[in-house]
Amino acid sequence: MAGSLLGQDSGSTAAVTVIKRALELESESRYPQALVCYQEGIDMLLQVLKGTKDVTKKCNLRKRISDYMDRAENIKKYLDQEKEAGKYHKQIKIEENATGFSYESLFQEYLNETVTEVWIEDPYIRHTHQLYNFLRFCEMLVKRPCKIKTIHLLTSLDEGSGKEQQSSGLEEIRESLRNHGVQLELEYSSVIHDREIRFNNGWMIKIGRGLDYFKKPQSRFSLGYCDFDLRPCHETTVDIFHNKHTQKI
User: Fold this and answer.
1) What does pTM read for this prediction?
2) Is the separation of the CB atoms in 183 and 142 below 8 Å?
3) Cα 158 versus chain centre, distance
4) Is 37 in contact with 19 (CB distance < 8 Å)?
5) Among the CATH numbers 3.40.50.620, 2.20.25.110, 3.30.70.1070, 3.30.870.30, which is that of 89-242?
6) Predicted pLDDT of residue 230
7) Which residues form the MIT domain (predicted)?
8) Which stretches of the chain drop beneath a pLDDT of 50?
9) Top-level CATH class of 9-85?
10) Burial of 50 (C-beta count, 10 Å sphere; 0-12/13-18/19+)
């Protein structure tokens, strides 16, 4: 068992809990989540190893860590093969009123220094809060580790009273991005329905509600108004794919 070689201190207990979860996820073929748990559990076990004085326990613990590292490496190889074959698919279900799903929390895993270009297809970048959502998403992209050069946005044109607001808002975002060395390419379509985000490192994310999955804050001074990890969400589904040959929208 995962905890048979460990003591009862808080560090050991936490490590056992995470490793047990990794084993459960692996048995359920939930490999991306299992890999994360293995990596976290191994880090915890290495800390436990540092504080272990008993030579026999130390030797056994090293063997156990090595076994878990082998399992994690095998999962990583499998996931890499799936990505290479374009078969990778992970689904996240965001429940009604769930929190912890800011853009950073949702997308950070798929952003690295190789990301220089992004394509966004979302028909509803029109109203003020939707423009702010897009701005917040752009802010995330401009931060490290990304080296964003170009953002492509395909959306629908507001033909009503909000047309001027949409146009001026996107133009302000374009100008602000330009000041940070990023080009915003805008395109409008009257037949767009799908919501999709693609990064040029091969990751593709489809969110049922697009970028507009946050609920309105209760007030201007309620938690979640600024920190979107604390903002309740609408129910939606996030599908994540990897395709080596990501194409432009």
Assistant:
1) 0.70
2) no
3) 29
4) yes
5) 3.30.870.30
6) 97
7) 8-86
8) 5, 245-249
9) mainly alpha
10) exposed
